[in-house]
Amino acid sequence: MTDPAARLLEAHRRLCAEFGCPLSYFHALDPLDELVSSLLSHRTRNADSARAFRNLRERFPDWETVRDAPVAEVEEAIAPCTWPEAKAPALQRTLRALTERRGALDLSHLAAMDADAARDWLQSLPGVGPKTAAAVLSFSTMRGRALPVDSHHHRVAQRLGVIPPRMAVGPSHRVMEAMLPAEWGAQEVYDHHQVLMRHGQKTCHFRAPACGRCVLLDICPTGQARRADPFTEAREPDYPAPP
Ligand code: SF4
């Protein structure tokens, strides 16, 4: 199978059979909550970012208060995250910029925009990159059609040869989303992200991928190369380490 898009869709088909698509959404947060949650989650384990998010909700009555609080108080609340000293001022900067643009902490206007326009608008906020924008659109109650790419998803795509080995996570969002069938709705795109991410977590590990029990082995150039040459691993690119 030489066409990368065809390989990606075959991987989707097999992994959906393994994980049982359609998959349930794991969040039902409104878009602003999801924005905060996603900003906290960068390079952080899910359980830790969830704890930091809960701390913010318990210590502050609303996001306006988080925005205007002394930064040390926000930093203390999000201490379970990685780099709270950087994330606290960054979160407040994003909330202030949103307030300046919209006159309030409000993302309701996104619902009337198409996915590309909504993604561009979100990415124009300081601190918001392609993954956070896609997470807000896809994971929040908007349930939009957008493809987030985390480090597991990205690593599997690189090993499958559907994106170049040195393509960073940021630019891979649009490249991989463009490979998905236009007729797919939000659920299929969400499933696609979830099954590639879960495959990276359960089988295609950062270190020592379990190629011998992988359902993608016969279509995966990395798996084939590793089987043919035990020293392949030493020549693989440096994939971003997962949190
Ligand atoms: S064959 Fe190996 S490298 Fe390829 S997707 Fe499966 S686990 Fe990852």
TrEMBL record:
Keywords: DNA damage, DNA repair, Glycosidase, Hydrolase. Residues 40-202 form the HhH-GPD domain. InterPro entries: DNA_glycosylase (IPR011257), HhH-GPD_domain (IPR003265), HhH_base_excis_C (IPR023170), HhH_motif (IPR000445). Belongs to the Nth/MutY family. It holds the Pfam family HhH-GPD. The keyword Nucleus does not apply. This is Fe-S cluster assembly protein HesB.
